[in-house]
Fold this protein.
Amino acid sequence: MDKFSLILHDFANKINLVGLKIDPSGYCCLDVDNGMLVHLKYDSKRDGMIFISEIGEVPQINRSAILRYLLRMNDNREETKGMTLSFNAESGKAALGYQYPLRFLTDAGFEEFFKLFLDEVERWMKRITTFMQGEIPEGEEASGSAASQEYSSSSSGPQFMIGA
């Protein structure tokens, strides 16, 4: 967990984030731009850093169509950039996650991946919204996807803060 803590503290210092606390289990949360929460967790079994962020609420109506879409996208590593889309039944929200092996992670690598992760969270937030509106998300027209038709639509840089 030493490398995990060191990378996060170095990042916090670089962006002038005061008061970053990592709990004893190896967890911390960053609030990016007042609302996008990025959960960072140390995985001791795999010596990795887990990134997780919610990408949207999945309403009960036509939930199965949205979950099929997420599952189908997980099968396309080019679409997810190797990240994993998931669903939390307790909260009713979809999330994007990734586990990065610490042995390959440097300070610069963390910053680069963190930016990529934030971009992907924003992209998936938009894709979920588009899908729930009954439209095919951009880039899927070529693949002939009609999954979103199952869904009835009747229903200056990042600012960081320490998350709840």
